Amino acid sequence: MKEFLRWGKAKLQVDYRLLIIYCVLYFLWGLAMNWFGATVEIAQFTYWWQVITCYVLYMVPISLLLRGLPFHMQYAYGLIAMGVLEFAGYGLQTSYAYPNNLLDQFFGIRNFSLGMALFFALYFPAGNWAVAKIYQALFKKVA
C-alpha cells in the first residue's frame, strides 16, 4: 500500500501550469457536456457546480494518475473510474437522465449508464493528449 501511495503522490506532483491547463480544460469540457446533455435531453447534473466536483476534483487527479500509460490502459482504468461515477451519480440521483432519451431509444434503458461510462472513459486518454498538446504549445516542454 505504501508503494502505491508513493507512486500516486509522485504522479500527482506536476508543474502548476500543467495542473491549471487540466482544470480549465476539464471544467470547460464539463460545462459544455452538461449543456449539451441538457439541450438534447440526454442527461444532466442536478446542480451546475457538480461539473467542478466531477470533472475537476474527480477526473483531473485520475487523468494525472493515468498520464503516460498507453491508450488502452488509460481507457480501461478510466472505464472503471467512470463506471463508479455513473453508478453513484444515478444511484444517488445527483445526475438526471431524461426519460426515453436518445441513448435509451438506441441502446435500451438498461444500457444507459453503461453507454455513458463507455463514452466518458475516453475522456482520460483524450484529455491527457489534449492537455499535453496545449502544454507543449504554450511552454515548449514535453508534458
From TrEMBL:
Keywords from UniProt, A to Z, are: Membrane, Transmembrane, Transmembrane helix
Entry superkingdom: Bacteria
Q: Which residues cross the membrane?
A: 16-35, 47-66, 75-92, 112-131
Name used for this protein in its record:
Uncharacterized protein
Organism field = Euzebyella saccharophila
